Amino acid sequence: MTEGRMKDLAIRCREVCRSYGKLKVLSNLNLTVPQGHIYGLLGPSGCGKTTLLKCILGTLKISRGHISVLGKPPAFPGHQVPGRMVGYMPQVHCYQIKCIYIALLTSADISKCCTETQPETQNSKQCRCRSTVARKNSLESGGQKRRVSLGAALLQNPQLLILDEPTVGVDPVLRAKIWQHLVEIVKTGKVSVVITTHYIEEARQANVVGLMRNGRMLAEGEPETLMKQNSAATLEKAFLQLCETSDQVGSKHSTYPQGGVLESGQSLESGRGESLPMLGVGPGPVEELPKYSADWKVRVRHVMPKWRNIAALIIKTTVRMKRMPGSLFFQFLLPVMQISLMCLCIGGDPKGIQVAVVNNETSSSSFSQSLLSFLDNSSVQQVNLSHAEAFAGAYNGEYWAVIGFGNNFTSYLTKRMIQRQVSKEVVDGGSVHVWLDLTNRQIALMLQKKIKDAFEVHQSSLFFFEEPIYGSMNSDFTTFVTPGAVLSITFYLAVGLTALSFVIERKEGLMERCWVSGVSSMETVLAYLISQLIIISVQIILLLILMLLVFKIPNEGNLVLVIALIVLQGITGTSFGLVISSAIDDEQNATQAALGIFYPNLIVSGIIWPVECIPYPLRYISLALPQTYASEALRCIMYRGWGLSRMIVWRGFVVTLGWNTFFVILAIVILKLRM
Ligand SMILES: Nc1ncnc2c1ncn2[C@@H]1O[C@H](COP(=O)(O)OP(=O)(O)OP(=O)(O)O)[C@@H](O)[C@H]1O
């Protein structure tokens, strides 16, 4: 085929094959769309029409064959298919009204809205969609949604318009209007349209129709000619006739994988010695495919992310967020709620713990009385009882401990302190005896601490704990758990929200629209990271205010380092969310994956209990996780005031950055493979 002839064709598919795993969907398919024509692609459900359109758009790769769209293969470096040269209306029925509005805006931004460069008169109908959008609240009916969706595809005045079942579920008046509009726009000869439809008769308005079945093209030609050649009064009857003949021939050629009957590139009629007006798709001589080449600069530019596309995607996400203030509010409030609940409910001292006291010393000046007066009354409620009552109550679960003093506690204790060697009886009589209910370790530990504290205040202890080297005497479990919890909350909120919104956008067809507009997987990932950064920043500001000012969690270190590490963890969570959502197709599975990883990571990362307590094989896994070193680094920054010169601190940053880079690359690769 000469280059001049190629230029007259909007699309040319030769011997195209495409499979999904073992399912062969397109099998040696040929299709030719001349420039300035409406091409009606007809065929039963599941015959591979959408798959073929995606291959033409370059969002699906073909397994074999050749496709040329507007002169070059789709996705060829520097070629704007997918991109500005093509408009696409996907076959999505569950579109939400808000998404359509955003789809229109996104389409306009990404493809640099036509109205900037083209006179309005050229596409007055498209521009009317803008006014429809302005009345976005009224976009409720299916017809309106389809009209706006079509408007989004038309916005950039594409040279090729691909519409996947635009008239399904649309009333006859609107259907007629859509066709009328298509007929009008191809009149200039500069726009070509490919439209799929189940309403075969409406395709009579197309200049050319292609009848597909089982991933093959049965016939291709002008509707009237196809009807004449099959002696059919309607296009539908012609199609049925062709299917019947195809079945008969198919049963004789049972070797065809999908019941196809035609040799590759051969028309059904050519087997009968008649030639259909196949617009150049007949068997013909074996053609040499044109060779395409692109300058290295064009190739580099093709791969490099375009900031205009990223900016458009960020605007899309921002518009989407603004349209869902409830969800946005929830995203800001959730971490604040989580950290507040954590600080309020975890790590504090238990209050009002009842303890039975059996004091056999009666004198008010005794050591035992003095000691008991130093016990923290807000935490420990002393109940004076006899020996029998105390133990009966403890076994009944009424008291968490029994504290006992012997008759001669004061004199024996004095002897213990003065004499170098004392008898066992003196040691025993000069000791405070404590029986603990150890079923609740936290309460038992607190009681032990309170009794020890009382001794220290009373100066009866042999130990004197000096001011701590780092931290404070009052530091509790909350102090330990807060840095890890903040990182974990930021990370997992970003994972969940990114995974969910990405999967939903893909399901709604918004993502596909962006890809067809020429957005690359790298741009998609970068735009998500930047958009999420805005949310994370607000979350972190609120978290820090709450943590440092309300709950008075100490911070001895550089606040910039604290913020930087939390932001990095949030970004890493976003990247991980993108990995999950690019690999998983539906929101339920994506949410399950995010939740499934949450608890094991929380437990093994040393966030709620020190890594030093983890058995050795698990400890190695723990050290490889994204939050283990980061939590340790944040604790060292906040409580020891350490900076980046310390290995523990920079190691936290390096590990987080490493995981982030790994997740970003993985998400880009998975998206690229799946596009
Ligand atoms: N992502 C996918 N993974 C696996 N199989 C798929 C995928 N997409 C489509 N298929 C299968 O490929 C076949 C062709 O699907 P396709 O959507 O191209 O058909 P269609 O002709 O457009 O159908 P319809 O007219 O109902 O939209 C079907 O059997 C479908 O189940």
TrEMBL record:
The keyword Translocase does not apply. One of its GO terms (cellular component) is ATP-binding cassette (ABC) transporter complex. The chain crosses the membrane at residues 480-504, 525-553, 559-581, 593-611, 648-671. Residues 251-272 are annotated as: Disordered. SMART domains: AAA. InterPro entries: AAA+_ATPase, ABC2_TM, ABC2_TM_bact-type, ABC_2_transport, ABC_transporter-like_ATP-bd, P-loop_NTPase. PANTHER family: ABC TRANSPORTER G FAMILY MEMBER 20 ISOFORM X1, ATP-BINDING CASSETTE, SUB-FAMILY H, MEMBER 1. This is ABC transporter domain-containing protein. It comes from Oncorhynchus tshawytscha (Chinook salmon).
